[in-house]
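Build the 3D complex.
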Amino acid sequence: MNELLSDTGRKAMLEPLFAAGWAMVEGRDAIAKTYDFTDFTEAFAFMTRAALWAEKWDHHPEWSNVYKTVHVILTTHDVDGLSAQDAKLARKMDQLTT
Amino acid sequence: MNELLSDTGRKAMLEPLFAAGWAMVEGRDAIAKTYDFTDFTEAFAFMTRAALWAEKWDHHPEWSNVYKTVHVILTTHDVDGLSAQDAKLARKMDQLTT
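Done.
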């Protein structure tokens, strides 16, 4: 079962993500980041790699793509807020771009 | 070069799309449709197939995905409105789901 991040878990897991360009979404317990690639094929290649991890972990992003940018929002619907799954997927997405 | 749809082109190309569930986007010369699939893998499989056509035709959607739904907006940025490319990609996307 997923659980909402505790105050300490939140600090430990989210601070490195904020340092890496993630930010809280206004009005939601969710984090977001916009990735900018060189073109559509790079952007969609990232989405494809991230999609495989999302499906493997059964934890899916809310995301949008316009040409070479991909905007990602992560939250955990069954706990209505951020869980460790979001931090894990955020870290994986960052890894996939490096 | 892309060209804005003429009045007659607009009627001929857009009416069948409206009948197929596409609609004008409020405040923009753009069309949109939301596809609902059975799960994330079906939704992302559709996006992958559509992405290959988009890249082949050098005409890319603005789209978002939340779990099993995909919301697509089509417009032609270099003419700041709808062109025949949008109708062509819309028809292809509909074909991919049948």
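Residues 29 and 81 of chain A are 5 Å apart (CA to CA).
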